[in-house]
């Protein structure tokens, strides 16, 4: 009897071990392919054009753009962010700030800084959203409008902005973010070069913590002086210059960041805008656009281009970062299961196989498999079920591969954007790329498993994202 029981334990341990190994190998394969494709895509990209040359080429044909800025309790950063947007180098654009029922002084700060007054502006009610309480314009600039509405969440606020805007393209940007001066022109370039097929474009998101910011511009780039934002710098480099560049190259990009993305208004209205109450409204919208275009049998492009850069504030405390990451995980799971019929569906081609396959392996199964590995592999070793050689090989593979991926992402960053002018910065980031694999990566996976648990419990809480303010960055 004891022998049968022991045999069952060994069998169960073997099955779990192979599940963990299989999930790890699948993720490893995906990351390696991303690195190879991203490196190839960078090698084929033309040299980065100077801003003045872009203006000369596209200034006369650049389409109007509306910048939509959902703002909820953004009093620390919103005025500086709006100043930054108004100073962008683009011939025809408007900034529409949507105050989503903020409980702090967000609206009052905007009224005071830009002398806002109420006005009337007819708009198309193409998408549903919470009631608008008032529209404001500024006598200081004809480019700025503010929408004051009842709180309905980020997706609801963005839908209100889409209704109010009149431009054929709109760009969504977080209220705590700062665009580089030529970001709009660079993001609009694919729409100008290929107006029939391009329906969405995403740019690079970078961490502004520690940099010197004046008058809504990043004047000097510095690394954060705290470890947690430093870890996120490496994480963002890996996410954008490796993953998104690779998926964009094969037209399977599944996410255009909600912090900075440009869309064709007609296509977004056609899919019903942003999904109300969604935890991952940016991922949700891109999936809907893929589905809509595939169902219609139309050729299209959803692109990521590295050069348009948006600077944002990263969480500086573990509690705030944990809330952010668990919410991201819930958003990924919500979107995966909402559109699960697309998974491995031949009708959706590479989007169904590669795009959704990636979400399944990395976001759905990945966190569970990794956390099980952290707990069960050492436990099986202690019980004598697994050999010491297996334990050492498994551990070495995890850490060596994690370091390799992070360092290669830094290489891609230096090859393309070169935003860190000092060799010391690259040395620090290389060290951080090693350090993150010894604690931070594991902590992230535990947060993602917590997000899984919250999803199963139908937890829809957003969680307060406490800000320190970009204006408080390094002087």
Automatic annotation (TrEMBL):
Span of domain Glycosyltransferase 2-like: 68-214
Presence of keyword Transferase: yes
Transmembrane segments: 15-42, 351-384, 390-412
Pfam families: Glycos_transf_2
Gene3D superfamilies: Spore Coat Polysaccharide Biosynthesis Protein SpsA, Chain A
Entry GO MF terms: glycosyltransferase activity
UniProt keyword list: Glycosyltransferase, Membrane, Transferase, Transmembrane, Transmembrane helix
Record flagged with keyword Membrane: yes
Family: Belongs to the glycosyltransferase 2 family.
Name of the protein this chain belongs to: Glycosyl transferase
Natural source organism: Rhizobium loti
Organism lineage string: Bacteria, Pseudomonadati, Pseudomonadota, Alphaproteobacteria, Hyphomicrobiales
């Amino acid at each position: 009897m004891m022998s049968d029981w022991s045999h069952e334990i060994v069998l169960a341990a073997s099955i779990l071990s192979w599940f963990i190994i299989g999930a790890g190998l699948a993720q490893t394969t995906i990351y390696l392919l991303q690195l190879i494709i991203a490196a190839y895509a960078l090698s084929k990209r033309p040299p980065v054009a100077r801003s003045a040359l872009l203006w000369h080429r596209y200034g006369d044909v650049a389409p109007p753009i509306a910048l939509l800025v959902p703002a909820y309790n953004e009093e620390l950063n919103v005025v500086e962010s709006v100043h930054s947007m108004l100073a962008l180098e683009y011939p025809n654009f408007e900034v529409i700030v949507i105050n989503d029922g903020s409980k702090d002084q967000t609206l009052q700060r905007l009224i005071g800084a830009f002398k806002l007054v109420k006005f009337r502006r007819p708009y198309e009610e193409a998408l549903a959203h919470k009631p608008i309480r008032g529209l404001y314009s500024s006598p200081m600039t004809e480019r700025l409008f503010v929408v004051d509405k009842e709180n309905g969440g980020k997706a609801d606020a963005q839908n209100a902005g889409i209704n109010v805007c009149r431009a054929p393209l709109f760009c969504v940007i977080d209220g705590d973010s700062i665009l580089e001066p030529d970001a709009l022109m660079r993001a609009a370039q694919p729409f100008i070069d290929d107006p029939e097929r391009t329906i969405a474009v995403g740019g690079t998101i970078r961490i502004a913590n520690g940099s010197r910011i004046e008058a809504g511009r990043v004047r000097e780039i510095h690394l954060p002086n705290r470890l947690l934002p430093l870890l996120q710098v490496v994480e963002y480099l890996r996410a954008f210059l490796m993953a998104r560049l690779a998926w964009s190259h094969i037209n399977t990009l599944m996410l255009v960041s909600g912090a900075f993305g440009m869309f064709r208004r007609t296509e977004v209205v056609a899919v019903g805008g942003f999904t109300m109450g969604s935890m991952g409204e940016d991922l949700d919208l891109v999936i809907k656009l893929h589905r809509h275009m595939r169902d219609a049998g139309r050729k299209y492009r959803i692109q990521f281009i590295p050069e348009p850069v948006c600077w944002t504030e990263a969480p500086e405390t573990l509690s705030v970062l944990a809330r952010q990451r668990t919410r991201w995980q819930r958003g990924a799971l919500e979107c995966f299961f909402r559109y699960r019929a697309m998974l491995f569906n031949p009708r959706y081609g590479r989007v169904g196989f590669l795009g959704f396959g990636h979400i399944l392996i990395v976001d759905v199964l990945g966190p569970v498999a990794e956390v099980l590995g952290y707990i069960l592999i050492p436990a099986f070793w202690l019980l004598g079920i697994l050999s010491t050689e297996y334990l050492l090989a498994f551990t070495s593979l995890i850490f060596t591969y994690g370091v390799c991926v992070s360092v290669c992402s830094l290489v891609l960053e230096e090859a393309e954007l070169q935003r860190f002018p000092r060799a010391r910065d690259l040395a620090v980031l290389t060290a951080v790329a090693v350090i993150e694999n010894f604690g931070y990566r594991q902590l992230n996976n535990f947060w993602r498993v917590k997000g899984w648990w919250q999803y199963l419990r139908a937890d829809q809480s957003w969680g307060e994202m406490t800000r320190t303010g970009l204006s408080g960055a390094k002087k």
